[in-house]
Every structure is written in C-alpha cells, then in structure tokens.
Amino acid sequence: MTDSILFSQTGHVCHLLLNCPEQHNALGREQLDGIQRALDQIENDPEVRVLLLTGAGEKTFCAGASLRELDASNADAAGFQLMTARVARLTVPTICAVNGDLYGGGVELAASCDMRIGVRGSRMRVPAAELGLCYPLEGIYRFLECLGPALTRRILMGAEEFDADGMLKIGFLDHLVERADLERRAQEMTQRLVALAPLAVSAMKQIIRQAGEYSVDPAMAQTLFRQCLESDDFQEGLAAKREKRPPIFTAR
C-alpha cells in the first residue's frame, strides 16, 4: 500500500494498519488512497472473511482527517466519506481494535466497523462543532446507525468527550481490555468470525445495515454542509485549533 498504511492477509483474515503514529494516524490523501487500494483487494478476493483494522502506537488510533490538508477547497470530505462508506458496506465483517485515543473522523472510521474493542485509558471526541464544521451526511449516517440519535447529538452537536469506560457504557465499544490484551482479544474475535458460515454472516450484515439506514433530503444536507464549509467560522475554528487558542465565531 504505502508506508503509512500497511495491509496484509493471513488465511481468511485481512489486517489493515494505520501506520503514522507520529501524526496520530491522521488520514490525508496518501493514506486514504492506500486504504482504498486495500479495500479493492478485499472486495475482489472471495477468500476474505474478516477485516481487522487497528492503528500503530500506543497513543492514538486515528485523529481523523489531516489538519494540514484541511481547508475549504478540499475539506468536503468526499474522499474520507467514500472510504468510510466502503468500510461500512464491505460484505465481510469488520473488527476495529482501537489501540488509543480517537478523534473526529477517526471516531467515524471506528463506527464504520461492525465490532470494536478498545483499551483502558483511551478517549473519544468529535470536535466538528468547535471548528464551525457541519459533519458530512454520510458520517452522520454512520453515527446514527452505530449509536442512535440521542448519543449522536451528544457526540456531534455537544462535542462531548468519552473516556474508555464511557465508550463501553454507551455501546460504542463492544469490549474493553488492558492494552497488553488487545492483540490477543482481537485475534480471538477474528478467529471466531472466521469459523462462522461466511454467507450467513454476510447476509445478516447487509440486512442489519439496510435496516439501520435513515432517509433525509441529501440536497438540503449538502447545502447546509457547504454553507458551514465556506463560512468564516470554519476558517476561524481551524485557525484557533492550530494556534491553540479559544475560537471567536461570528456566524458568517
């Protein structure tokens, strides 16, 4: 793939590693392209039965979209949303081994997986409202399908932070383990899924996903998203984050 995205396959299990811990495994164009190529291989290989996704390092699973590449010209998240949508729509089950903190789009990426296992001491937060950014429609679908409306409001509208126990309590994490046990527990989960009937697992996954989808006016959602994306507040939110100061929003 690329040095920052590592992909391998062992038997029926594919492993996808976000491998840029010095940048908190943030995803820019290079990383998104690498993940897309990995998804191409998974979709074209009938032998694959499970995808295991995790991040390198002990601090952060994924910090979402790279702030260095984020501005009004390319932050419409089309590439990011296409990637997470493909992860969510894979016919094989997906497990996310959340090795550390997760922020922004990193939360969405984990939510796109079918099952999540996390480590004690980790935190989760989506700061879109702090940046003056309306979260994209596809991403909102992911949160609604994973957690429902009430928790989606707390995560997106309230930019609420959850610790590891909180993530387990609200159902974002299916399992919570000590860091030393993460790899072993993730392997146990993958092997259990590999042992199940792949057609049945795939069929039920697709039905569950379709049952969890919501219907809204995409044109209206896109208009609101673009308004936020092109606003002064979005630029102010980015500047404040980079300068490590409180933002001053003007609703323009």
UniProtKB/TrEMBL annotation:
InterPro entries: ClpP/crotonase-like_dom_sf (IPR029045), Enoyl-CoA_hydra/iso (IPR001753). SUPFAM superfamilies: ClpP/crotonase. CDD domains: crotonase-like. It comes from the Bacteria. Belongs to the enoyl-CoA hydratase/isomerase family. This is Enoyl-CoA hydratase/isomerase family protein. It comes from Candidatus Marimicrobium litorale. The lineage of its organism: Bacteria, Pseudomonadati, Pseudomonadota, Gammaproteobacteria, Cellvibrionales.
